[in-house]
Amino acid sequence: MLISGNIARLEARIQKACDSAGRKRDEITLMGVSKFVPVDKIKEAFSAGIRYFGESRVKEAAEKFTAFKNEFLGARLHLIGSLQRNKAKQAALFFDCIQSADREELLFELAKHSLIRHEPLEVMLELHTGEETKSGFKDLDSLFKAAEFVLGSAGLKPAGLMTMAPYTTDTAIIRSSFRQLKKAQKELEKRFPSKENWACLSMGMSNDFEIAIEEGANLLRIGSAIFKEQE
Ligand SMILES: *Cc1c(COP(=O)(O)O)cnc(C)c1O
C-alpha cells in the first residue's frame, strides 16, 4: 500500500525530529494535504490514521469532501490556499478552519458568513515570512489588528498562525521564516494575555518539516510525502 507505507516512513522521520528537538510526538498534528489527490487515496490516508486534511481550493474540496465528511466522522478539513472574497461564504460554511486568513477584508467576510454556523469557524492568521510568496499579513501591526478583529467576532475562533517558508535548499532561510512565526505567536500572547491564545503553529511541508519541528511547529501540512510515489 503506497500511502500507508509513506505514512509509516514519514512517522519515523517525524519521531526522529521530535527526539532530536526534545519534543513529544503527540504535540504535533500531521495534516494530509490532499489537493489534486483523488478521493480513494484520501480514504486510504484516513484508514491509515490521518484525521486532518488540507485543501487549497474551495470548489475542489467541496466536490471531494461532501460525501467523505459523512462517511468519516472525526475528520477535520482546513482551507490552506488563498481564498477569494466571492468564495468566502462557501468556505465559511464548509471548512472547519481557514488557515489562509491573510487580509482583513477576508476576515470581515468570514466573520459575516460564519454567524449561521453551529460552532464558530476556526481561523489561523497567515504571516508573510519569506520573499517567495505574496500571501500573508506583512507585519506585526497588521497581524495585531487582524487578531483583535477575530477576538471580537462571535462567528470566528482564533486557532493559531500559519506560514509558508520560501521553497529553497537554504535551510537558514527556511529556519528564519519559521522563527518569525514563532516570534509572532509570542508577541500575540503578550499583547492579548487574557484572551484565548493562538496555540497552533501551522508550518512545515514535505521538504522542510524537520526544521519546522525544531522551531516549534505543532501542525505539519504534508502533501507529497504522503500521497506521491517516493523516489
Ligand atoms: C501544497 C501545500 C502544502 C503541501 O506541500 P508538499 O510539499 O506537497 O508537502 C502545504 N501547505 C500549503 C499551503 C500548500 O499549498
Attribute tags:
single chain, 231 residues, alpha/beta, eight-stranded parallel β-sheet, binds pyridoxal-5'-phosphate
Describe the structure.
The protein has an 8-stranded parallel beta sheet with strand order 7-6-5-4-3-2-1-8. The mean pLDDT is 95. α5 runs parallel beside α6 and α6 packs across α7 (171-191). With 231 residues, the protein is of the alpha/beta class. The chain is 45% helix and 16% strand. Residues 33, 35, 56, 80-81, 164, 205-207, 221-225 line the site of pyridoxal-5'-phosphate (PLP).
Bound molecules: pyridoxal-5'-phosphate
Strand order of the largest sheet: 7-6-5-4-3-2-1-8
- The helix-strand sequence is HEHEHEHEHEHEHEHEH
How many helix segments?
Answer: 9
Main sheet properties:
8 strands, parallel
Strand content: 15-25%
Mean pLDDT: 95
Backbone structural class = alpha/beta
Report the C-alpha radius of gyration, rounded: 17 Å
Cα distance spanning the termini: 15 Å
Q: What's the multimeric state? A: single chain
Low-confidence stretches: none
Summarize this structure briefly.
With 231 residues, this protein is α/β, with parallel strands linked by helices. It contains nine helices and eight strands. The chain has an eight-stranded parallel β-sheet with strand order 7-6-5-4-3-2-1-8.
Reconstruct the topology from this structure.
Layout (H helix, E strand, L loop, with lengths): L1 H20 L7 E5 L5 H9 L4 E4 L2 H14 L4 E4 L8 H7 L2 E5 L2 H11 L6 E6 L13 H12 L4 E7 L8 H21 L8 E3 L6 H6 L4 E4 L1 H4 L4
Parallel strand pairs: 1-2, 1-8, 2-3, 3-4, 4-5, 5-6, 6-7
This protein binds pyridoxal-5'-phosphate.
